[in-house]
Amino acid sequence: MKKISVLLLTVLFVLNSVRPVRAADDAVIRYIMETMSLEEKIGQLFIVRPDCLDPEYIDDDRNPDYKVFTELTGGMKETYKDYPAGGFVLFGKNIVDEEQLVSFNVELHSLNKLTPLICIDEEGGAVSRIANNENFDVPRYTCMEDVGNIDQWGHTYDVGYSIGDYLRRYGFDLDFAPVADVNTNPDNIVIGERAFGSDPYKASYMVQAFICGMHDTGIMTCIKHYPGHGDTSGDSHFDLTYTNKTWQEMQDWELVTFVGGILVDTDMIMVAHIAAPNVTGSDEIATFSYELVTEKLRNELGYNGVIITDSMEMGVIIDNYDPAQAALNAIKAGADIILLPQIYKEAFDGIKTAILSGEISEERIDESVYRILSMKFRHFGLSYDIFLPMLDIFGRRRTADSLL
To answer: I need a labelling partner for 249 at 20 to 30 A (CA). Which of 49, 63, 176, 356 fits?
Structure first.
């Protein structure tokens, strides 16, 4: 396959692939934001475990043995009123069988008039919460490395489509997939066969095919783990992990797949908890790096979609930062969504305190909320149905066109 430079891919993206929000949609989204409370805005910045809504979990001091729930309780619904998260991610322990899963997702979707996103890690292979549950009759794949070795766009498209198809049937909105890392380091213990391969251009082609297949089912995608976890030797689940690549070297390898994903409109990009000292000049992890998140990903690579952190429950985070400071650092760097803060209530309150004290502005929060609502607006069909309860003014509903 002919190699195309990251610069050229970026130019093509800027020229051809930006999805502007329609004027009518923009008016509706901005009006909705004017009606939202500060707490509702802050909630949109978080995707959490349903379990963390349990009052005992909320009040417990970093108890790793929290309860796991497969349905909502009255107490969880009450907690949500004060801490209205923008989305949820389900893990294997939250999933029993088809009937339970569909019922649970309906409950979660019904919590909020802005419809929480329901997300899952269903990569195909080892990281598959549904396919690895024997109670589900769905297509199963050994790993994405095997899919990449077939090296056929159509086959990879079908894989993305088949996974997206059953996720849609069970009520999910977004899959934290595909893995866009390039598996170039044989000592890597995190990515390995989860990646499509070691050639960045072939991997980029596969990433694009998978995204296109999944999008055609109506499921959103999140490529991971920017700026590239494939050439690291450590595991950020437990401690600080490095990539020693320069930005130019990343442009030639790791970033090829991410730009490929941007070209086909991936809905989110996940930022990894890895340090890139030869880019930033420090050991600051990418999640907290304004240079890597805003200056590089947002500005230089031109990504206008939603940026989400990797799980904030990982060791490199919880061993060094409290939940509030970790969330605040990520928002300051340019992230839109905080994924899985260790203690959701603390992280939420920390962001609120920072806004009220002036440490960060509400305008900064509004930038992220606008991107998140725009993504939701596109995903839920642009029918306005999920937003209509917020548009009831003086007993009448205003149409999108009347808001212009």
So the answer is: 176
Q: How far apart are CA 269 and CA 251, in angstroms?
A: 16
- As a whole number of angstroms, the distance between CA 201 and CA 362 comes to 40
Contact 38, 355 (CB under 8 A): yes
Distance CA 309, CA 318 (A): 14
How many degrees, rounded to 5, is the angle at CA 26 between CA 336 and CA 297?
Answer: 30
Cα(first)–Cα(last) distance of the chain, in Å? 47
Beta pairing class for 306-309 and 268-271? parallel
Angle between helices 362-379 and 344-357 (to 10 degrees): 130
- Domains of the chain and any CATH numbers: 6-403 (3.20.20.300)
Number of neighbours of residue 183 by Cβ within 10 angstroms: 24
**82-141, pLDDT tens digit by residue?**
999 999 999 999 999 999 999 999 999 999 988 999 999 999 999 999 999 999 999 999
Question: Would the pLDDT of 404 be above 90?
Answer: no
